[in-house]
């Protein structure tokens, strides 16, 4: 479709810049809880996905590597072309 023609200018890089329609639909239907999904700063990987397990007395327990915690955007925003749509920017 027209989306494919627009992406053709990027040549071999195109598949890495935009998800396929199947991947976009799967991401939109994937369960997501904005209150528990976070990114955690990681010394080697920059950021890794994490899930908040508990919040108690100002402390948060996250299931993943230790580090600073940031809010995470829903999967439907992966590789989004207009970052103005994103809720959280890091």
TrEMBL record:
One of its GO terms (molecular function) is ATP binding. GO terms for cellular component: myosin complex. Residues 33-82 form the Myosin N-terminal SH3-like domain. This is MYSS protein. Belongs to the TRAFAC class myosin-kinesin ATPase superfamily. Myosin family. InterPro entries: Myosin_S1_N, SH3_Myosin. Gene3D superfamilies: Myosin S1 fragment, N-terminal. It comes from Geococcyx californianus. Keywords: Actin-binding, ATP-binding, Coiled coil, Motor protein, Myosin, Nucleotide-binding. It holds the Pfam family Myosin_N. PROSITE patterns: SH3_LIKE.
